[in-house]
Amino acid sequence: MAAPTIVILTGAGISRESGLHTFRDPDGIWARHRIEDVATPEAFARDPALVQGFYNARRAALRDPAIRPNAAHEALAELDWRWPGDLLLVTQNVDDLHDRAGSRRLVHMHGELAKARCLRCGAVGPWEGDLSPETPCPACGAAGGMRPHVVWFGELPLEMERIEAALDDCGLFVSIGTSGAVYPAAGFVREVRHRAETLELNLEPSEGSHLFGEARHGPATVLVPAFVREVLARWG
Ligand code: APR
């Protein structure tokens, strides 16, 4: 049988063992910050310095040398290099750990912390340091319009056409380290479950766990390398 198209959805849980916080766990980001204060277009319009400070801290945390891709990111990169069929890794994560591990067929549907966007000219580019309301745009020179290139609540996720095309074609759908609380990502399993194998790999059952054909529960650094070995032995 030909190797099926694989679509893999990842969330904050895959980066937890690299030292980054998830959102909805008891020690998660949304236990310490209110979404409506830091992660909506209205919050940015009201208090851009506060919103930028929140993302500046998260961007700075990514540059900590202790924060590195873990065995789960590395296993998915190996699957990307070795998989003979189509594959798309769709991450909700704004960190760059999949990129650093070497995944190439990758979509950051919620944007990237390591990029900034200018609301004046639309330019998107790499961004390593802090942003402030005074930061000028490197492309057009205007100040006052630079924002993190992340998708806030109430905004449309990125590259949805490419994601939907992969889901249409998908024979195996795997969801890793995501609580299934945020749409549209949480709805992908419903789109594919009647024609594709579906597998959840998560520390605990997610909100949509019952929608998957199979669910395995445990840490991503254990479950993901085992899954990759298995799928490569089956079709690779
Ligand atoms: N291995 C596997 N799964 C884990 C691990 C781990 N080591 N640690 C935690 N998890 C699981 C948790 O049990 C939880 O189900 O990861 C999931 C993380 O869920 P959330 O914190 O809700 O993160 P995520 O699903 O990525 O959130 C989706 O919400 O606010 C946002 O935009 C943000 O992209 C994010 C979106």
Automatic annotation (TrEMBL):
Superkingdom as given in the UniProt entry: Bacteria
Cofactor binding summary note: Binds 1 zinc ion per subunit.
Active-site residues from the entry: 110 (proton acceptor)
SUPFAM superfamilies recorded: DHS-like NAD/FAD-binding domain
Cell location: Cytoplasm
Function: NAD-dependent lysine deacetylase and desuccinylase that specifically removes acetyl and succinyl groups on target proteins. Modulates the activities of several proteins which are inactive in their acylated form.
The species this protein was found in: Muricoccus nepalensis
The name this protein goes by in its record: NAD-dependent protein deacylase
Family: Belongs to the sirtuin family. Class III subfamily.
